[in-house]
Specification:
Layout lengths: L1 H11 L10 H11 L7 H18 L2 E2 L12 E5 L5 E2 L2 E6 L14 H9 L1 H14 L8 E5 L7 E6 L9 H20 L4 E4 L11 H18 L7 E6 L2 H10 L5
Parallel strand pairs: 1-3, 2-8, 4-6, 4-7, 7-8
Antiparallel strand pairs: 5-6
Helix pairs in contact: 1-2, 1-3, 6-7, 7-8
Length: 254
């Protein structure tokens, strides 16, 4: 199954040299660079079967089963791979093109989510961006299906990029990312949302400041919208550094 998928993807992109890589990484690299093109039905079926098998081996985490944090009855903290979370929506830290990361094997969340969701995700993003006719603005968000993810939907948001010092505008834009995602989730009657650490990776927003903005914005939104459809917000972290930061911020006795 995987070998057949890789062989097909190589015919689309014969110039990308992946021969030295393990088969699974060949697939990932080829998918990472694949533009939003129509996908033959037989290839799509092979891909979906492979990703379903991969999902089974990785395991699925029920978002609503995660423990509640001390500071808020609707907030949880979880460290792990966001593509394993079974929630109504996970949040993707996207770029302004909203088409995913095209760097083969790049270890960013955008790449991870697009790989796990399948090639349909880039197609869906492309359709929305083509209809929009311009890049996505910083602080805004779009929604797509989750396709092969355990999550039903993906909320794509564009965080601020830090080149030098963090400015008040950067902080406002980051807060807007969280607000936009929560508003979009509520518009679609979603009950559970998992946030990644927006802008803290290659966008270089300082981790602790970003966490403070995230927590402040989300708690304010939940408190100001008590009848919201949103019953659980999960702060998903991958690095131990971010886990320690959020753990401290979400503990009552600080």
């Amino acid at each position: 199954m995987l070998r057949e998928l890789v062989q097909y993807l190589k015919t689309e992109n014969p110039s990308l040299d992946v021969e030295a890589l393990p088969l699974q990484e060949q697939y990932r690299a080829l998918v990472n660079v694949r533009p939003a093109l129509p996908i033959p039905a037989d290839i799509l079926a092979l891909q979906d079967a492979y990703l379903l098998e991969l999902r089974y081996h990785k395991g699925v985490v029920e978002g609503l089963s995660l423990p509640i944090c001390e500071k808020h009855p609707k907030i949880s903290l979880w460290q792990g791979d966001i593509t394993c979370l079974k929630v109504d929506a996970i949040v993707n830290a996207a770029n302004k093109q909203l088409l995913g990361c095209f760097a083969p094997l790049h270890n960013c969340i955008d790449n991870a989510i697009h790989t796990a969701a399948g090639m349909q995700l880039r197609e869906a993003c492309y359709a929305q961006m083509k209809a929009q006719g311009h890049y996505e603005a910083t602080g805004t968000a779009k929604i797509t299906k989750g396709y092969n993810l355990p999550a039903k939907y993906v909320l794509h948001t564009v965080g601020p990029i830090i080149s030098e010092a963090v400015t008040p505008l950067h902080c406002k834009q980051l807060a807007a990312c969280y607000e936009s995602c929560l508003t979009l989730a509520e518009q679609h009657s979603l009950e559970s949302v998992a946030f990644c650490c927006i802008s803290t990776g290659v966008f270089r927003f300082p981790n602790e400041k970003a966490a403070e903005i995230a927590l402040h914005t989300v708690t304010n939104y939940l408190d100001q919208h008590p009848s919201s459809s949103i019953k659980r917000v999960i702060f998903n972290v991958f690095k131990q550094e971010d886990f320690e930061i959020y753990k401290q911020l979400l503990t009552i006795n600080r």
